Amino acid sequence: MNNVDAPVWDAPGPDVPRPGELQTLLDQGTLAVVDDGDLRTGRNRFERAYRIAESVGDERAMAVAALGFGGLWVHEHRTVAGSVLLESQLRRALELLDPQSSLALRLRIRLAGEGDYRSSDNTAVLALLKQARSRQNPMARAEALSLVHHCLIGPEHGALRRELAAELVAESFRTSRRSDLLMGLLWQTVDMFLDGDPHAERCLAELRGLLAEQDHLAVGFVVSAMEVMLAVRAGRLDEAEALARACTERGVAAGDVNATVWHAAQLVTIRWYQGRVVELVPLLSEVVNSPTLSAVDNHALAALAVAAVTAGDRRKAVSALATLCGRDLGDLPMSSSWMVTMHGVAEAAYLLDDTATAARVYELLSPYGHLPMVGSLAVACFGSAHHALGVAALTMGDVDRAVTHLRDAVRQNLALAHWPAVTASRDRLAEALVRAGRQAEADAVRQELAVAAEEAAPAPPETDEHDSAGLQGEDEQRQPAAFCTRLGRNWRIDFGARSVLVEHSVGMLHLVVLMANPRQEIRAVDLVAGLTALNGAAEHTALSGQPVLDRVATQEYRNRLARLRTELDELKAADDHERAAVAQVEHDWLMSQLAGATGLGGRARRFPEGEERSRVAVSKAVRRALDRIAAADPVIGEHLRHAVHTGVRCSYWPA
């Protein structure tokens, strides 16, 4: 990871300036940042220029160098050393200037911007913008407009931001600086994506056109990040991942501190919609402690909570969520990552059955239900905020409200053309309808999901007449493979155009591993040991200490039993004998599982050594999962009964 805050000297030896070197460095720094968007080169040149200017007592050059060292964006210097160095340069230069000069005003604006961005208090920078507007200095106004816009990137300032962006475009024709025009158009594009404006891509196209004429590394990096976001919306997730790698390379080339942070955010979005967010626990554990993560960016901690609980690490998830919530979730700064952070908090609360946190998310996010959950400068998008509101309502047990929000989420996601988000919202809508006892409506939503999945499936490759004749018999025998996606406490199994939602269980976890590794034999011992063994960490670990049910599974079973008892009381009071019978079967099954998994004093039973006991345990768990799948969808159940093989070695053969 590049340390963009580290000072870089052009040459070793005594700091003795060459004749004309100071002006050359200032010119080179300005060219790099303003014309080329090369932030790294600009920082290097301006840092060297500042030291020379300070040594010769050139106050004006010190001010220009300090402003240039600040860069194009607010908060480019993330480390403690880097931010202190920038602030000290700005304050020292300001002390030496006439307070009424335009350079002094520009220094004050930059200082206020850096401070206000970190504190989420925009009072000072807005007051200085008012001063800049009263001056006859277009450069000071343009810089103020861009920095203030960056400070106001949270969801509550949408209307004001759009005014500032339009004003910056107009000001660019007075400064005659191409970078001011690019920044004005970029901020307009960002604002339109943040607002869910249907014409956002028109503005993006104009920006692309300007960059095609002459590239600008810093602005081009943001545009490439938007391309990743749009590929995710279109459902082209593999392409989005390739674009994300290219985007990171552009960010590194530009010297942008967000290069690796944005890549992590892009991977979170892609893996979320692939149902593979569990893979990101190690990465997110590093990112949350990265010195290059903005002081007001909390999305990684929310994502870690979701990934950890999905992976079964409830303790890590609870800790991450508690850290995020602090004294009150409302204390989190409403930065550019606030909306996607709330999405992560809502999902984590849902997975952890944390009704108090879900209620707080609902309260905080409600004023912004009309907005999409877009992160940073349109780097990532998780669809309509109504989705997170629906998930929070579902966690709170308010199923009717959840249905309303999730219907709105489907509608808004369709308008955004965010197809993975449409699917996710329909899945949750079907779950909410089932909980509300509206099975027919839930079936209709699932039918929409099946049709959408069939429409999104890639077309078969074209073959000539000779090939088609030879392959006809083979095609008639070939079956599609089933695959699983984690959706909260459930798994969605897709098989061709069919789809079914099944609650999490030990047997389902075994099936998920087998379906993720088709035509590969996996030892039953490894399936019992779980994800740790599959990752290689327990390759040679004896099985004698492996619990029949781990603590997380045991707690989930007990939590579900508590909910079932309440549900049974309500169903019996309502004389709903059919649903009560179904709930009773599940209740009895969970009781038998807990009884078999615990010994004297409620202590967890453990598997004795030997592959035979593992074979029996896996076979029973998988058989129970297959029975539940077949009850929900006989076609998918029949396919899996024939394709899944259990024994000492287990496998899934779809054809």
Number of strands: 8
Q: Give the spatial strand order of the biggest sheet.
A: 3-4-5
Task: Profile the largest sheet.
Answer: 3 strands, antiparallel
The helix-and-strand class reads mainly alpha
- Rounded mean pLDDT is 84
Q: Could you give the distance between the termini?
A: 45 Å
Gross morphology is elongated
CATH superfamily of the domain at 215-452: Tetratricopeptide repeat domain
Uncertain stretches: 1-14, 458-478, 531-550, 596-609
For this structure, what is the CATH class of the domain at 215-452?
Answer: Mainly Alpha
Helix proportion: 55-70%
Question: What is the CATH topology descriptor of the domain at 215-452?
Answer: Serine Threonine Protein Phosphatase 5, Tetratricopeptide repeat
Q: What is the number of helices?
A: 30
Q: How much strand content do the residues show?
A: 5-15%
- Roughly how many Å is the radius of gyration? 29 Å
Oligomer: single chain
Using the 3D structure, state the CATH architecture of the domain at 215-452.
Alpha Horseshoe
Protein name: Tetratricopeptide repeat-containing protein
Region (Disordered): 452-478
Organism: Streptomyces mirabilis
InterPro entries: TPR-like_helical_dom_sf (IPR011990)
